[in-house]
Design brief:
nucleus, transcription, transcription coactivator activity, Transcriptional adapter 3, mainly alpha, about 0% strand
């Protein structure tokens, strides 16, 4: 049940929603106009290029570009003097590449050709092969993993302690061998550092 006191707040909320909806509609309409103009301009430019190409007797530029990449080697970049004075040692020959790009429209066909072997029906030969693999695995030694428990924590703690003892022993050996001849100098130097 709506009270009379709530009607004022409800009316202001509805007016605010109405205003925001109107602004959003205007924004969407302006975006639609921009997109439609862009589409019309793109179609017009495409038709104009096609008509210009047909008048001159050429193919559309996209086909020409694609053919250029398939047939002609790309020139070396001319950004530095090194490239101008030293030609590239491995020149690309137009007939050297056997694999030519087939275009962007080929992607779905190539994808399904790659996926098809994995989606094929399972045959009796596949089942027989899997059963043979399972039999060979049964013959091998399979390591059983013990259940988690305190034995892991004890084992790991013992390994850590042994590792720390080995490292401490190595560190002590290094200190002993490095300070044998200069034991007094080291004590004197450490006393001087402490005094400063």
């Amino acid at each position: 049940m709506i009270l009379v006191d709530d009607l004022d707040s409800l009316q202001t909320d509805l007016q605010a929603l109405h205003t925001s909806i109107q602004r959003r509609i205007q924004l969407l309409e302006s975006e639609l106009v921009v997109l439609n103009d862009w589409q019309v301009k793109r179609d017009y430019n495409r038709k104009r290029k096609l008509s210009d190409a047909s008048e001159v007797g050429l193919r559309p530029s996209s086909v020409t570009k694609r053919q250029k990449t398939d047939q002609e080697p790309t020139p070396p970049p001319r950004h530095t003097k090194k490239n101008k004075t030293h030609p590239t040692e491995a020149a690309i020959e137009p007939h050297a590449s056997k694999h030519k790009s087939k275009g962007k429209g080929d992607a779905p066909d190539r994808f399904w050709a790659a996926v098809e072997p994995y989606c094929a029906d399972i045959t009796e030969a596949d089942i027989h092969l899997l059963q043979e693999d399972l039999k060979s695995i049964d013959g091998d030694e399979v390591h059983s993993v013990p259940a988690l428990g305190r034995h892991y924590s004890r084992h790991w703690a013992m390994e850590d302690m042994e590792e720390e003892r080995r490292e401490a022993g190595r560190a002590m050996e290094n200190v002993d061998t490095g300070n044998r001849g200069s034991g007094r100098d080291w004590q004197r130097d450490s006393g001087m550092c402490a005094a400063h």
